[in-house]
Write a structure and sequence with these properties.
By secondary structure, the protein is mainly alpha-helical. It contains 7 helices and 2 strands, in the order E-H-H-H-E-H-H-H-H. The protein has 2 domains: 4-96, no CATH class; 118-157. The chain starts with a strand and ends with a helix.
Length: 159
């Protein structure tokens, strides 16, 4: 039986590389996985992968997460297509993941560096990034605080 591990880190790494402009074909060639398997991982987000798959994806991520696809031979057209698909799918870029938590299934990306705060929610809005759960909660807290202030002002004015 082949050893398996959580797929969370592998999925996040592959999605992050796609956001950075790495096309499926290049990721398949570099990892030794098929393009079909890469597509399965990034779109279906399975619960587990083989340990060999996880190691292959992690090695490619280390090599390419900070590299420019264009400088590594990926055509501008293919890089732009990969970025567009990944952005449309709402995938997090490599910079949103901390190396210590990327493999933790319960971890969430830190899109702004201030997620979970009003500043984080503002940065999401400013940059057109969908709100992450902590920023949704921060935005809701801010909305409730505004409503409470408005109600206090009304009650003070009518007293």
């Amino acid at each position: 039986m082949t050893a398996r591990t959580s797929a969370a880190g592998s999925v996040r790494r592959l999605q992050g590389l796609a956001v950075a402009g790495w096309p499926v074909g290049r990721l398949a060639r570099e990892t030794g996985l098929t393009a079909y398997r890469i597509t399965q991982l990034v779109t279906a987000s399975p619960k587990t992968v083989t340990v060999d798959e996880a190691r292959a994806v992690a090695a490619v991520y280390v090599r390419y997460s900070g590299a420019s696809p264009g400088l590594c031979g990926v055509s501008h057209v293919h890089a732009r297509a990969a970025r567009d698909r990944a952005t449309a799918a709402g995938w997090a870029p490599p910079a949103a993941w901390d190396d210590d938590t990327i493999d933790d299934p319960a971890a969430i990306p830190q899109w702004t560096g201030h997620c979970g705060t009003s500043r984080g929610a503002n940065l999401h809005a400013r940059h057109g990034i969908p709100l992450c759960p902590p920023c949704q909660a921060a935005d809701e807290r801010r909305r409730l605080a505004r409503e409470a202030r408005a109600l206090r002002a009304l009650s003070t004015n009518h007293a």
